[in-house]
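Support case: user asked for a sample of complex input and structure output to validate their parser. Sending the pair below.
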Amino acid sequence: MTETTTAIPKPDSAARAIWAQFRSHKGAVFGLVVLGILILAVLIGPYLWHPEKLTVVEAIKSKNKGPSLKFPLGTDQLGRDMLQRMIQAGKVSLAVGFVAMLIAIVFGTLIGVLAGYYRRLDGPLMRLTDMFLALPLIPLLLVIMMLFRDRTASILGPELGAFTLIVFAIGITSWMQAARIVRGEVLALKEREYVLAARSIGSASRRIITRHILPNVVSPVMVAATLGIAEAIITESVLSFLGLGFPPDFPTWGRLLYDGLSYMQVYPERVIWPGLAISLTVLSVNYIGDGLRDALDPRIRGR
Amino acid sequence: MLTFTLRRLLLAIPTLFVISLVIFLLVDLAPGSPMSEIPLTVPPEVRKKMIEALGADQPVMVRYVLWLRQFFWVEPATLFDGWFGTNLAGGEQRILSWQSRAPVFTIIGQRIPQTLTVIGTAYLVGVLIALPIGIYSAYRQYSLFDQLGTLFAMIGFSVPTFFSGTLIIIIFAVTLGWFPTKYDTNLAVTDWPSFLQQLRQMAMPVMTLGLANAAVISRYMRSSMLDNMTMDYVRTARAKGMSERVVVLKHVLRNSMIPVVTVIALGIPSIFGGAIITENLFGVNGIGAALIGAIHASDLPMVQTLAFIFAVLIVTFNLIADVLYGLLDPRIRYD
Amino acid sequence: MKLKTALLGAACALSFAPAAFADRGTDGEVKFTFPQAVSIMNPFLSSGTKDVYASSLVLEPLAGFDADGNLIPKLVTEIPTVENGGISADLTTITWKLLPDLKWSDGSPVTADDAVFTAAYCMDPAGGCAQLSKFDGVAKVEAVDASTVKVTFSAPKPNPYTAFVGALSPILQKAQFAACQGAAAPTCTDPNNMPIGTGPFKVTGFTVNDTVTLAMNDNYRDPAKPAFASAVIKGGGDAEGSARAVMETGEFDYAWNTQIPPDSQASMTAAGKGEFVVAFGTLVERIEMNMTDPDPALPEGERSTAKHPHPVLSDIKVRTALSKAIDRQILSDVGYGAGGAPTCNVVPAPAAWASDNTGCIAQDMEGAKKLLDEAGWVPGADGIREKDGKKLHILYQSTVNPIRQDFQALIKDWWTELGVDVELKAIDPSVFFGGDAGSPDTFQKFYADVEMYANNSDGTDPETYLSQYQCVNAPSPENQWQGENMNRYCDPAYDAKVKVLSTTVDVAERQKLAKELNDMVTKDSMTVIPLVHRGTLSAHSNTLGGVKINAWDSEMWNVADWFRVK
């Protein structure tokens, strides 16, 4: 009976060890805190900060103001409160960034592992990857939007429909790099001794992939994921720029950055806020990724 | 390895064929028309006649077959005629841009040099900066150097080129007045002053692109190095008493190159593809600027030809990357 | 010539006069930058204004327009009129007399045959000529003798100054283009890129969509002009970049089409290297009302067609209320600054043709609310007006453009205050204006309730422009959505008046009719809500003299007179 009381459930201890290692990584903790603040800000921000609605004439009078007590981040060219817009924009940008990155990474890793591990799939899957790399991005996006916008809007409603389509479009056009990199790693990994050993004792392919291959491709995938978030946020602004993104009164960080560009010399803070927000998100995700990688690596964890 | 390469080369032909058809259908399906830049004062009947004169009203398959014939027969024949004074092409129509009515290959020929010099230099600069940063950052993980390198890389890829480019223009051209904002395509490098002038006008686009490229590559280099630093063979090598230099630069580096080679190889076609935003911003008349202009004007022959050349490059460089994998890691076998 | 002599005298009299009338080619190089690069130097095959303006340095028409929209002779001795016998009494022929000893830049003489050829070139059915409408109604162009061109129309033509007039319709050299007629037109790359002309410059180098280099034309008819020995046009980038290159870094002398926000205009002007100039033509930013129902629930082919009148906007009270709620002065100030003025007309200029309709300038929010109450739209619980259980919802589309998005945001604010639920949509301009019948997002299909864009009339006479609003011009599946009457406005009285205008000769009478037509689509029916009369904003360096911005012809119409301020 004593056995059951002393035995600590195994997965729990592993999770705890990973968390302990993660916590000891200063950068990772910093990243987690910053990202947490950003997410919290865009989620509860709208309830804390709701400036009074100005009429058009009043707003125009207070246009292009610098930061002040009334407008902590200043106002834009139409006198709209930048803090409020940054909060609204952040919600959309963070959601698009994470979801689109997840789609791209999951899809890319899947293709990469399949192509690298199964020789018969390698040819067709990599040619598919070549094709997606070769397709001109803008016509592709235009066609996706033209074909599916009305349909998704009628099923999911205009806003959710636009969101789904945008993350799908970004995901479907950015998984190729991850796929190529993962495939390259897998090609090398599957000839390593421990994989050969696992195969020789008759482990199923699925088990070899999940137990031995996937944990070892985590680090390039992490890098691709970090890059992916920044890219997704920026690609969303390109989509808006082409009129394919959200409706024009729907701010996103990418769009605020783009809009601010023509005012950069006169009112530099117009580009600093969205630029800072995007950079902070990317930076924190990167540090979290670093910490995760260290925490997941048993060799480092032991040290 | 040789048979593998040959087989892949053969396989590339049907692949490219399918890719060309998909691109053609895609570009054709995309909304937009070659008439979108014509002023609204031009009446609809005239627009219709203009479209007919372009041949844009023909069925899509007819145009695709015509393009195939022009691309694989008329254009090479014309090139051959140009070299040897023969008359193989027999005056058949070459691929003409709908926007400018000039042969697409003439336009590409005019633009390749700018793209190669400016974008190519930027890429080279990016790689040369990125590799040492990545290696040293990984070797001294979490040192001050590593932290600064991380910050630099994060800024490099979280800031889009349309932003960093404009910032660089405002700092170096408007405020300091060091560099010209518009690239002068007609500048011929003949002597020392004109060479300096060429360097000056290349400086800002190279800075913009080099920063972005270096950021990406240095991250992959660092992470791949880190993975290998903790491997048993490194411990063994150190235990055998090898110098740090040999351990890091010979053993770890070589084994870390696979993902980096993928990224660099994937990036090389994009040199030819040009950097759309940067070229546009600085007025470098490269391939990227041509592609975006053609897409906006729905110039189908131009888009199709550029996209197809791009596809050929991608397939080629992916093949090269695969061959390099085998050289870097002899355990990888394809047969 | 006389004018020049007079000016020369004046210049000599004034001691501080700049070196305006230096000898040919003494002022070095003049550098242009265009935000869109030049694709082709032949305006008959061009895809936009950028090409027409660039080619106007080289190719010239028989007559052009000055900065006030008056006709001026270019290659002819005088402007033909009925009084001087140049136009026949029945208005079916116009006869142009070429200047004596006129030469192409290659030294060969310009003859009436060149004009005859140019007409045949553009009117060739297989050529796809972009300026074909300039030759509308032309039955025959013939050379009476080597220096006399006679154009015969198939019916009396009240405005015969279309063919060979203005930068859109210049004369080509027959010898150069003889092999390029009809289906061969697009394949003549060299002539299309380097046409031989009579203008002050000739092309020396052409890189597609990038740079045009030009040198002075040694055979130009005025031996003292142009002052510049060479010119270069660099294209590409954006409006900001072009403006910056002239106003802040001083790398270029002239930038065309530098539409940037008013704040940036002010800060760039402050750099002190150049100035912005505005040309007010007939360009009007407007909101067009859809008179038909764009409901997506309707079957494809019936959406936005005359079969289904618009359920909300068919009521003139709603349309009027929407117009009254807008403060056009604010829009103009925010979007265009000095480059715009509020307007209530679709034909805002020239002054003689513009109606005195200013009733819409002052915003009237209370009046607008009252009108909606009267129309039966009453505020619901959430502040949105409703009628018979239906919410007042409007889909408002436009193109992707920072200024248009600002307009959309402001107008949405006003309409929301009015109690209207507004949904905004922005479309890529190449799709919106592309006219691709397969795309749902073109301005012709108009699958929205209101849409905003800018349009203008070509030249000073608005007849063609106003005739666009006839019933028959409504885009529909039958004409592959190719009409110009976006609103599907249809009033038999309007069509009848257009018919009268097309046969009226007397200018005063034509102007009166044009004003009436303008009022019918604007203040009487509120089908079109004009917002801002827009100018084209260009920038030139302080060291460039002689610039007289022109909205009626090429902006470079008098480039021969430009000089370097020393």
